[in-house]
Specification:
Number of domains: 1
Strand content: 15-25%
Shape: rod-shaped
Radius of gyration: 37 Å
Number of strands: 4
Strand order of the largest sheet: 1-2-3-4
Length: 147
């Protein structure tokens, strides 16, 4: 029969240095880590919000640019006599479905400094913005008449 000594069973480990005995985080470290995560999260969320705004603007701008080009083509094909004084049907209006949120205004005027050139501008607008498109058309008959 063997007897075990009580002192041997309850022997303590040798003490560890301060860095080795410390486990986990202090409250200050946890607060600093939480603040860093909060700042990074706020930056990421603001970048995401800016991306959403840019996507919304692009979603509105692309149809507006196509509609402006369409109106500009109508004005180009109407002839120089009509461009002298635009009728109301060409000067302003609203687009039909599915673009009923968009409206347009158009203007055309002869450039006095450059004979034969007509500046045509179309502005397509919606509730939160607008898109402008301008073009200069050359009409040789106006160049001869302007001299």
């Amino acid at each position: 029969m063997k007897l075990y000594s009580y002192a041997a069973a309850t022997r303590r480990r040798p003490s560890l240095s301060g860095a080795e005995s410390r486990r986990g985080f202090t409250l200050l470290e946890a607060v600093v880590a939480t603040m860093i995560i909060g700042v990074v999260s706020a930056g990421a969320l603001s970048a995401f919000a800016a991306d959403l705004r840019a996507a919304d603007l692009a979603q509105r701008m692309l149809p507006a640019a196509a509609l402006a080009q369409d109106r500009l083509t109508v004005l180009e094909t109407s002839g120089s006599l009509v461009l002298e004084v635009l009728p109301d049907s060409l000067a302003r209006g609203r687009f039909r479905e599915p673009f009923e949120d968009y409206s347009w205004t158009a203007s055309a005027h002869r450039l006095r400094s450059l004979p034969g050139l007509i500046e045509v501008k179309v502005d397509v607008s919606w509730d939160a913005g607008s898109f402008a498109l301008m073009e200069r058309l050359y009409e040789p008959s106006l160049a001869v008449a302007g001299r």
